[in-house]
Write a structure and sequence with these properties.
mainly alpha
C-alpha cells in the first residue's frame, strides 16, 4: 500500500480484494474459501477507508463488527427490561463531547414485544 494514511489507498486495495473474490467464484469449480477471505478483506479495507476519511483512529484489527461499530459513530443500543435499563453489574452509560459542542438530535427507537399494561 502506498500510503496507509490515505483513504483512497485503502479503497484501491479493497477493490483488488473484490476482484479476487469475484474471480475465485467465476471458476468452473468455485474457490469459496478464497472468495470469502477476499470478500472479508474487501469489507475490512472499505471500513478502514471510511474511518480514515472521517479522521477516526482505528485499532489494528480484522474484526468487521468492531470496525462497523466505529463507523456507526454515535449510535447506542441500550437494553431495557420491564421499563428499566438492563445493564450488567459493571456496565454504565456515559455521555461525553470530545470534539466540541454542536447541535444534536436524539432519536429514540423502541423494538421488542408489546407490553400488556392492564392489571
Amino acid at each position: 500500500m502506498h500510503d496507509p494514511t490515505e483513504p483512497l489507498a485503502w479503497v484501491a486495495r479493497a477493490e483488488e480484494d473484490l476482484a479476487l473474490a469475484r474471480s475465485a467464484l467465476r471458476r468452473k469449480t468455485p474457490l469459496t474459501y478464497g472468495a470469502t477471505f477476499h470478500a472479508q478483506q474487501c469489507a475490512e479495507k472499505y471500513l478502514k477507508a471510511l474511518l480514515l476519511a472521517r479522521h477516526q483512529v482505528f485499532p489494528g484489527t480484522h474484526d468487521l463488527a468492531a470496525l462497523s461499530d466505529l463507523c456507526l459513530q454515535n449510535e447506542v443500543i441500550v437494553p431495557v427490561t420491564k421499563g428499566a435499563l438492563d445493564l450488567g453489574p459493571w456496565q454504565r452509560i456515559f455521555y461525553g463531547e470530545w470534539d466540541g459542542q454542536r447541535p444534536k438530535r436524539v432519536v429514540f427507537k423502541a423494538m421488542g414485544l408489546p407490553v400488556n399494561r392492564d392489571p
